[in-house]
Amino acid sequence: MIRRRFLRSVLATGLLLAARLSAASPLDLAAQNEEIAVLYSEGRYADGVALTRTYLQAWTDSLGADSPEACSMASNLGPLLTQLGDWEAAEIAHREAIACLERTFGPESEDLASALNNYGSHLGYRADFGRAEVALRESLRLLRLHYGEDHVYVAITLNNLGVNQQNQGNPVAAERTMRDAAARLRASLGADHPVTATAVNNLGRLLAARDAYAEAEPLLREALAVRDSVLGPTHPETSIGRRDLGRLRLRQERYVEAEADFRAALAAFLAERGPEHADIAMSRHELARALAGQDRRAEARAEFEAALALSARLYDPGHSSLIQIPRELGSLALADGRPADALARFQAACDAFEAGRARSGDGLSRATYVENPWRHLAAARLITGDPDGAWAALARSQGRVLADALFPDGAPALDLPADTAVIGWLDLDAGDGPRA
Q1: Quick one: average pLDDT of 236-248?
Q2: Which end of the chain has fewer surrounding CB within 10 Å, N or C?
Q3: What is the pLDDT of residues 11-65, one digit of tens each?
Q4: Can you tell me the mean pLDDT for 188-199?
Q5: The domain made up of 316-411 is a member of CATH 3.30.1380
Q6: CA atoms within 13 A on the CB side of 403
Q7: Are strands 427-429 and 433-435 parallel, antiparallel or unpaired?
Q8: Is 282 helix (H, G, I), strand (E, B) or coil?
């Protein structure tokens, strides 16, 4: 039986558990996994992919593609490709590893638990949050089955699930899950471990998004200090932590400080990951927001455009970035007195929003935190003298927006019992009726 004892944290998501064999093995799988783990921890993902493929081919040639050794080595490939931003290759690698592990170890193995967790992390990066939750919850079930409730692997997977809950627009559940995960990791690994820092950073980022700035900032600073000390100032996870601190400052309208954080993160990402990575697109997007907050519109527009062009190359239609960036460019165009450009931008945002809704069926995988852009298109149409078009656009907005339109001071708050939680929005879409 191959036991998986090595763990690696990926930003906000991810658990990589690599197998070990005895030193008597003709090819020392344990040493190989350790070598790959070092490359992963250093952010040298391309080198890790090349080495993994070399070792995987050797095991396949020696013992066969469905041997435990080959399956174990194959499970390293997906997380590395995910970090590189090679989504399609990563999707294939994750699926092949899961299939191999199921054939070799069965559907209830601890080996499969780690692969499902890694796949859930990958799906989260791709904004496929519904399928990500299914994979993460199954991983959590198997980890509890094999390791018990108090194992560090359970804590890491809880962290990943919390991030996914946040991305699905369920911040109350996400905060509860993340607090649990961070407390477990502090107790098991210590406050100065980079895995703990990941969980602390995720909690801080969630609290910042919920406007709990007084609690969020110390957590983000704590996580950044650990990563800077343990991983180094230019490591991708350190840069992500710096960007998250910038996001907090952006929400507080501390635009100059936020700009400095985003520029530092962007420079490090460019050096470590090259120009065609998702972290470059995200950092340019945040930098554009900081510049717009300082009314430096021309600079902001250039960064928005660069982020949009890269996002269009990286992501599937309907991704949140392809909704948010055109919407923000539309708002910038309105502020500049360019209503025709604003209309085109808002329409592009609406098209992407509908593409995302179509891909996710009844909305299981659609990120509910993405602001519905139809109301922005409605406002632009009203400004340009098209009230009928404005109403048609408004009718495609979420129910909350319609309620706000009916109540000048905003819709009254829902009077919910203490034990009741909102699990989704009501979507109103012309032609197919209301959808929960």
Answers
A1: 96
A2: N
A3: 333 334 444 333 334 458 888 988 998 898 888 889 999 999 999 999 999 999 9
A4: 96
A5: no
A6: 12
A7: antiparallel
A8: helix
H/E stretch holding 254: none
Condensed to tens digits (0 to 9), the pLDDT of residues 328-369 reads: 999 999 999 999 999 999 999 999 988 877 665 444 344 445
Give per-residue pLDDT as tens, 121-134: 999 888 788 889 99
Written as six digits, the tokens of 109 are 């193995």
b/e 29-42 (16+ beta carbons within 10 angstroms → b) = bbebbebbbebbbe
Tell me, yes or no, if the pTM score tops 0.70.
Answer: yes
Tokens of 15: 């658990």
CA distance linking residue 63 with residue 10, whole number of Å: 30
What is the C-alpha separation between 182 and 30, in angstroms, rounded? 29
Domain ranges of the chain: 1-169, 316-411
Return the sign of the alpha-carbon dihedral for residues 67, 70, 76, 77: negative
pLDDT tens digits, residue range 206-239? Answer: 999 999 999 999 999 999 999 999 999 999 999 9
If we measure between CA atoms, which residue out of 131, 128, 102, 126 comes closest to residue 114? Answer: 102
In angstroms, the CA 17 to CA 29 distance is: 13
Cβ contact 188:155 at 8 Å:
yes
Q: Can you read off the two tokens belonging to residue 185?
A: 């990791």
Paired tokens of 433: 């009726």
Return the half-sphere exposure (C-beta side, CA atoms, 13 A cut-off) of residue 35. Answer: 14
Give yes or no on whether 1-169 and 316-411 have one common fold. Answer: yes
pLDDT at 281: 96
Q: Looking at domain 1-169, which of 3.40.50.1820, 3.30.930.10, 1.25.40.10, 3.40.50.360 is its CATH number?
A: 1.25.40.10
Token couple for 50: 């090349």
